[in-house]
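hey all, quick one before standup. I had two proteins in the batch that finished overnight and I want to keep them in one place so we stop losing track of which output belongs to which input. First protein below, input sequence then structure tokens straight from the run.
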Amino acid sequence: MQISEEDILGRIASDDQGAFEQIFRLYYKDLSRYCLKYVRDEHVAEELVQEVFINIWDRRYSLKINTSVKAYLFTAVRNRSFNYIKLQIPKEQRKVDVDGMVDLSGSLSENREEELEFEELQVYVQNAIDSLPPKCQLIFNLSRNAGMSYKEIAEELDLSVKTVENQVGLALKKLRVQLHPIWDKVFVMIVLNFL
């Protein structure tokens, strides 16, 4: 039986494990695939998504969600992915420093360098997104990260489709200006569907 999001959240706050499991089953696979495009490791992606759900269950009595459950979950997974990447960069850099010295040619592994550069680029882009005005940022994230259409966003936030289009356009314009020094690399990420 399908229940509304408000009912699901209310039931979760009342210790209803069945409602919690319903949300888990509904979103887990999509969230894991979404997380995978950031962390590039299936086990890590699944672990991070599970951590998001554990956090929701732990905070069930005080949890307030101002968007849809779907938008909240995708944003939480994205944030947890970027936190993971931020923590991994120094570890990976140390590993490259040690492993790279063993390379007879004296150069670091090209693949590892590309992965580090990609991860750093993702963090840089996310910081730019985080600097957008709150409404603009929310709409941009719902569009790009939660995979919602302009119409779905407009209905969710009680706005016109035109307002949503304008906010996404404004976000892209601001990001283009802020990311100008690295825009070519960001454009490649967009083309490869990593943003």
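OK second protein, same deal, sequence then tokens:
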Amino acid sequence: MKKMRRFVGAQVFGFISFLLLWQLICLALDIRVIPTPAETIKQMLAEPRELVLHAGASVLRVMAAIAVSLAIAVPAGLLLGGNKWFRTLVSPFVYFIYPIPKVAFLPVFMLLFGLGNVSKIILMIWIIMFQIMLSVRDGVDSIPGLYFQVMKGFRASSWQTYRYLVLPAVLPHMFTGLRISIGISLASLFFAENYATTYGIGYYILSAWTKMNYPEMFGGILTLGLVGLLLFKGLDALQRKCTPWTAKGR
């Protein structure tokens, strides 16, 4: 309980520090296009239902993309790390695609899958999948060969080797890759939600900008930051539960 109070206190202190810095910038610049934190929060509280609907639509797209990405990328990453023929075959394709900014594929996905949610979710899958795949592969590569020999010495089956050696080694790397890719996917989703979308935090922010409603625009930006914070804290909690043997788990 004491640790929980300390953790909550640190989060509140960090958020208040951010608001104070924001207020100082407003006082220093003194321009109307940057509203004060009080004006922004007042605007957010004036229409909370609409803001929650937009944020919820974005979160649902992100969660759907994460689920599909994990289902594809984790097995593919394990194969990349454990099967040299699969690695030789697939690595050139992965290395070619990975450096390309994935948002460049949005027009292609819109042509193939339409302007709705499918193309936006596929864009995020395209972003998250390769990051997780390479992180899982690196996790397999980090396991010393001696550990596999020990498992063979205990006559462990392939399933037991994956269950008790490979997966525990891979999970921390997977969470790291997921954490990195979520930040990139949120930035790309903001761009994608400006096309043929009626709900989404990216649409909300740009719509407020076109109306020159700057408190509403900054309210959307603040909400996007809070969405990212909740996703990252959720990942931290899940990692502590799934990897209690790591420093983060402890």
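Flagging for whoever picks this up: The chain has one domain: 46-242. The chain is about 80% helix and 0% strand.
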